[in-house]
Specification:
Length: about 140
């Protein structure tokens, strides 16, 4: 009887030590508006309207610096996919148009996120920082 009890206790201890498939997953609260502070290695232009808005139902909205866009996002743990699917087409000053091109290039390349010190950092598949955001 004691052997059975010891065996069952050992089995339960081993099960308790197993890691969950979600043990590395961190829950991020993305919903809301985020100001884009940096695109790749360059800060955004002062007073730029560049932002991302994450809404219920995995809706993604935002401003690339000049034009508004819409699309969707998918978040699983710290894995994030952004899928912009449409945009307005107005022209702005060259500096904002250049910044807009960098934002538009970065968004579909996002694969992972991390939050630290109130900043949200979005990375590509190689771990390079694409965007740094702050909550509005």
């Amino acid at each position: 009887m004691i052997k059975k009890f010891a065996l069952m206790a050992s089995a339960l201890a081993l099960v308790g030590c197993q890691s969950s498939p979600y043990s590395d997953a961190v829950e991020f609260n993305l919903l809301g508006s985020w100001h884009i502070e940096q695109v790749k290695d360059r800060p955004v232009i002062d007073y730029s309207p560049a932002k991302l808005v994450f809404e219920e139902g995995n809706k993604l909205l935002g401003n690339n610096s000049c034009n508004n866009f819409f699309g969707s996002f998918k978040l699983q743990g710290n894995q994030l996919l952004l899928t912009p699917s449409g945009t307005t087409r107005k022209a702005c000053v060259d500096a904002l148009m250049d910044q807009e091109a960098r934002v538009a290039d970065a968004l579909p390349r996002v694969r992972k996120l991390d939050e630290a010190e109130g900043k949200l950092r979005l990375f590509d598949s190689e771990g390079k920082v694409l965007l740094i955001l702050s909550r509005l």
